[in-house]
Amino acid sequence: MPFTKFTDLDFDQIKTSIKSYLRSNSDFSDFDFEGSNFSVLIDTLAYNTYITAVNSNMVVNESFLDSATVRENVVSLARNIGYVPRSITAARASVKFTVNTTSITPTMTLKAGLVCVGSQNDQTYVFSIPEDITTSASITKDADGNNNGSIATFDSINVFQGTYLTKDFTVDGSLDQRFILDNSFIDTSTLNAYVKKANDVNAKKKLYTKIDNIVGITTSSETYLIQEVQDEKYELLFGDGIFGKKLDNGDNITATYIVTDGIEGNGPSSFVFAGSLENSENITISPSSTPMVTTISKAQNGGDIESLNSIKYFAPRLYSSQYRAVTARDYEAIIQQIYPNTESVSVVGGEEIDPPQFGTVFLTIKPKNGDFISDFDKTQILSDLKNYSLTGINQKIIDLKILYIELESFIYYNNSEVKEISGLKTLVTNNLTRYSKSVDINKFGGRFKYSKVLSVIDNIDRAITSNITRVRIRRNLRALVNQFAQYELCFGNKFNVKPEGLNIKSTGFKISGVSDTVYLTDTPNEDKLTGVLSIVKKELIGGEKVIIVKDAGTVDYVKGEINLTTINIISTEKDDNVIEIQAFPESNDIIGLQDLYLQFSVENSSINMVKDTISSGEQISGVGYKVTSSYTNGELIRG
To answer: Among 32, 145, 187, 588, which residue's beta carbon has the most beta carbons within 10 A?
Structure first.
């Protein structure tokens, strides 16, 4: 038996190896194993060896972060290097309402728990707050000037989608006591832990601070850590008297938190009040009428619990950063921790931009379920980053810049092998949409790979014989309406240049002093490295362009930059004051340079189905075959 050949781990291979070993013994050299009961014993040995091999392989794989597949094991391995996976995130809405009550009170408190109920697509979702909110109240008077009630306004209240729950523990001093919360789907950002001392009857519960590391923690620090355990539940870890204050026997712990539906809670924008109120004497009061809830911002930023791939990626990077923001990878890992709604992060040092800004780090954050983060979140992120960054280094969060990739694809098909053209076109669209969500794109530093897209299209169905696909890139210019302003758009990719111009196209807009809709176009200089932007309109008869502003800006074809000089835009054809500006790249492989977020826009791409008359046998000689140009068109207007 070849003892040194350990690669034969399939059942049949193991069985053959056992037979070979037995035949090497002279007593069984001519034995018919298949025709005897000995075969059952060999099968048993082979099964036992096979199962042992599988289990051993599984145990070894689950011992390493890169190869583990069971969530409990991945989380446990990440815990060894101090990483706590991000929890599920509750959708958050901002609301405002005014409460009238017959109770006379100087303050009014909105109790932690249910506040309102939101609805969307015939589904209702409860929204809660994790802590009490107290605001001042004004005394109302009747017609005779007598006090008859109070009125209070709760403005910009952040409510979280989910149910508010509490869990109590009593410290018994045993070594094996664990404080595990009963529920899965907890948004840990809403978690609060209160401790009441056992030997002080009149003492109020103290709010302990949740921390993510023990830096700066003393023996008297009232803090706690959390860790994920089995079934996506969480355990509270309190101090041991060395790192953090130790709890005494009989102490009472109260944990409050919100259990949420995560991403499913995004969307509701209409809410009905359902909260509980107290006056200044902690007596429950009722509104005179149901308060009307005004929505400031709809429910958004709900997210799922951190995936295994994300844990494997960020755990070692956060460990390598040692909670210090020094390199770009450090910032990427730390921002994911302090702002869980992060989908992708771009970090650019000030020395890399033109002109250089030394001592400043520029951050661009792509949030989940959206394109921009609020000013409040920006301020909070920058404040939290100060705990990790070096002294003298400033951080600046800039708004997301999206570089859209669009296709104009002409797909040739064999008419004899397809029943419905519309069905084939839908299949193409669905596959391109699936590719648009791949790891290559939809991120900072992403890369659109032209050859892969061609392959995706060709391999969708045997009816597709070939495709001619053109690529264009687009940036959205957000106009400052009715005010003079200058604009700069960076595409980060070299432009393809035609000497006759029309390399830059835009959607329509209007400027002050001109009643007609106008467009942007370009005229290359002799060097074909730079060009001049012009504002033109299209004649109704003949479709020729008429120049309105000859020198409206510049184009750098090499850097892929467009600069508009001072201009007053009064309206745009597109909603939200957007002007879509497109160009044709020199290379069909597109990259997301520095702070450009790459996004494949399938919905704005053009999919055209063309009958392949040669493959279908209609025109064997090729006469009448419809030929599609591989090069861009000379139209004035985008689209």
So the answer is: 187
Place 1 in a pLDDT band, splitting at 50, 70 and 90: very low
Give yes or no for a contact between 590 and 601, defined as CB atoms under 8 angstroms apart. Answer: no
What integer pLDDT is reported at residue 225 of this predicted model?
Answer: 93
Let me know: does 531 contact 555? Beta carbons within 8 Å.
Answer: yes
- What number of residues does the chain have? 639
Residue pair 504/582 in contact (Cβ under 8 Å)? The answer is yes
Please state, in angstroms and rounded to a whole number, the distance separating the CA atoms of residues 191 and 1: 61
SS (H, E, C) 360-377: EEEEEEEECCCCCCCHHH
Count of CB atoms situated within 10 Å of the CB of 535: 21
The model's pTM: 0.68
Structure tokens at 338: 């302090």
| For residues 521-539, average pLDDT | 88
Q: Each residue of 579-615: pLDDT tens digit?
A: 999 999 999 998 888 778 888 888 889 898 888 877 7
Q: Is 69 helix (H, G, I), strand (E, B) or coil?
A: coil
For residues 169-179, give the mean pLDDT: 90
Selected residue with higher pLDDT from 557 and 370: 557
Q: Are 524 and 557 in contact (CB under 8 A)?
A: yes
Strand locations in 147-197 (E): 147-161, 163-170, 179-180, 186-196
Q: CA-CA distance, 31 to 40, in Å (whole number)?
A: 14
On average, the pLDDT of the chain sits at 86
Pick the closest to residue 508 from 518, 499, 523, 498 (CA basis). 518
Q: Which residues contact 492 (CB under 8 A, 6 or more apart)?
A: 403, 560, 591, 592, 593, 594, 596
Burial class (CB in 10 A: 0-12, 13-18, 19+), 118: buried
